[in-house]
Amino acid sequence: MGRKFFVGGNWKCNGTGEEVKKIVSTLNAGEVPSGDVVEVVVSPPFVFLPLVKSTLKPDFHVAAQNCWVKKGGAFTGEISADIAEMLVNLGIPWVILGHSERRLLLNESNEFVGEKVAYALSKGLKVIACVGETLEQRESGSTMEVVAAQTKAIADKVSNWANVVLAYEPVWAIGTGKVATPAQAQEVHSELRNWFQANISPEVAATIRIIYGGSVSGANCKELAAKPDVDGFLVGGASLKPEFIDIIKSAEVKKNC
Ligand code: PGA
Question: Does the C-beta of 171 come closer than 6 Å to ligand 1?
Fold first, then answer.
């Protein structure tokens, strides 16, 4: 089907200058499959974007962790996607939007995330768009309803999905060490693909990369990667450690599927 495996490293609000340099040298030295097999994107805090961009080997790309919903201006503390200004101008091709930490802690609504995704795409950024249910939502049986509503709010504003990677990140698995089982991840990924088939188009359903995030580690990545609808990972905690290289290497699993 030709969906290239995608591994994103979400560093969140972590790292000193020294630590960032260390992570970059580990990444640069890591022996990983070629760019035909896996696409690797790391997302440092804003202040380290220029440093990481200028020191990371060019096979790997860099993402911002957020961007503003429109053009820059009087928006204290925000960063614009706008080509004339910030991210695109800095040569940052990717942005993570809709992460559950922003949805839950900063009250970003489904609609707001949809608008942000549309604006970032319109400025030429590629987007890692995150969706995922809380534990209460899973336990009450509404997982699919929740992720479908989050995805629909993006679909309402976006017509071209070519530059979108969808990250399914169950909130209960993020930073908890409680990873979704490969079967749980596969079930939601496959239902999301069905959602695209029914609501967008068979082409988008077949080509969109749906990656899993939530306590992915060097120890559990291969089993998850073996699932047919898991097209890669968005990795938090483990992306700050050398085991991120092992997670990138799990792309090899797809060759044997
Ligand atoms: P985690 O975070 O790997 O630390 O669980 C994943 C994410 O929030 O993207």
Answer: no
